[in-house]
Amino acid sequence: MSRHWFDALLVQGFVFGKRIRISEDNDNYSARFREAQQCRKTSAEQPVLLNELDELRQESYESSRIYKERLKLFHDKTITRKTFEPNQKVLLYSSRLHMFPGKLRSRWTDPFIVKVVYPYGAVEIENPENGKSFKVNGQRLKPFLEHFDRHESSEDLVDPLYQDTPSK
């Protein structure tokens, strides 16, 4: 009969589910005892290592969550909010598939007139040429600058004159 409960496992070469090396001298109880003690130590350290791995995993999830939040805030700051009002002229972005788009051809089509602004970004616009109205996403619109003339706003630049300031 075996002296301890782990002797039967040592004969097969398994302790705590791990294969161990059985000493050459099977009758040497102290060698088997030392091997079993070593297996117990490693099995006792295993939960600690698993806890450390779990903590590392939790830290990585937390840092990735913080990174995603910061990136979202940065992205949201760059979005320009557009507000439209009834009877305002706007340009509509043409998102059709252009097989042969010209480089200088604009994708913004004729000025339309805003009829109704719905909540959550929907806008109803009217084509002034034929009077048809339809709803579009507000992100496809941009304000039309009606009275913009490049030549009106040009000014001749002159060199600034610097005057000496009186010293105290």
Describe this structure in words.
The strands form two sheets. This protein has a five-stranded antiparallel beta sheet, with no helix packed on it. The longest helix has 50 residues, at 29-78. It is an alpha+beta fold. The protein is elongated. The protein is 33% helix and 19% strand. Strand 5 and strand 6 (133-137) form a beta hairpin. The protein is built from two helices and seven strands, in the order H-E-E-H-E-E-E-E-E.
In short:
The chain is α+β, with helices and mostly antiparallel strands and 168 residues long.
Keywords:
168 residues, alpha+beta, five-stranded antiparallel beta sheet, 2 helices
Blueprint of the fold:
Layout: H1 7-12, E1 14-15, E2 18-19, H2 29-78, E3 89-93, E4 108-117, E5 122-126, E6 133-137, E7 141-143
Antiparallel strand pairs: 1-2, 3-4, 3-7, 4-5, 5-6
Strand adjacency order, main sheet: 6-5-4-3-7
Query: Would you list the SSEs in sequence order as H and E?
Result: HEEHEEEEE
- Give the number of helices: 2
Oligomeric state of shown chains: single chain
| Count of individual beta strands | 7
Shape: elongated
What is the alpha-carbon Rg in Å?
39 Å
- Average residue-wise pLDDT: 76
Structural class of the secondary elements? alpha+beta
Gap between N and C termini: 110 Å
Strand percent estimate: 15-25%
Low-confidence stretches: 8-15
Question: What composes the largest sheet?
Answer: 5 strands, antiparallel
Helix content: 25-40%
